[in-house]
Amino acid sequence: MRITLTLILIGLLSCVVTNVQATDYKSNFRHIPAVQTGPVRVAPWKRTPTIIVCENAPVTESQIKKGVKLWRSLGHKFLRTQYKYDSLNKCKSGAPTGYILIHLVTQDIMGLDNDSLAETHFFINNNTNEVDWAIIYMRTTTKDTVLEHEIGHALGYLHFNKINHLMNAKWIYGGWDVDGLERKRR
Ligand SMILES: [Zn+2]
Fold first, then answer.
1. Across the strands, what pairs with 26?
2. How far is the CA of 82 from the centre of ligand 1 (A)?
3. How far, in Å, is the centroid of ligand 1 from the Cα of 35?
4. Where are the domains of the chain?
5. Most buried of 2, 72, 177, 184 (most Cβ within 10 A)?
6. Dist. CA 178–CA 133, nearest whole Å
7. DSSP strand pairing (50-53 vs 130-138)
8. 50 beta partners
């Protein structure tokens, strides 16, 4: 029941797909602040997440280490990172509470949308307004900044269309600018 509800909720919101290579997300958040002077984080994590790079994910160990290091340098916390090691079978879960899973995308996730490089689903518990879980789906042609960008969605950040910014919706306009992505205490 919960998984069905989740799928209905995440189906309600998605990014605009353009003919420029994009990075998408789907979520169920309810409120976005009206004034946007920087990247918006719709919710913090409920628990400190563990990242699992699942078996067929097109991500190397050095890529995930680099991505985690970037977000840690901005004050974000991860319990641990498991590289293609999943003793609790979390990678099979559609709602892995407490985890950020990274998968190879399958046809049913992005379908015919060839412009998307990756897609992240993150689920917000609307009672507490905190992120419960996230799943990142990556294509095999992983480009620079895509993994870091998707971890940003997994942490609850939306797009910020400043040129060269990590959270730019369009990959070709994005870059390594991390302005406004530092973890803020609430
Ligand atoms: Zn994106």
1. 121
2. 23
3. 20
4. 2-10+42-159
5. 177
6. 23
7. unpaired
8. 99
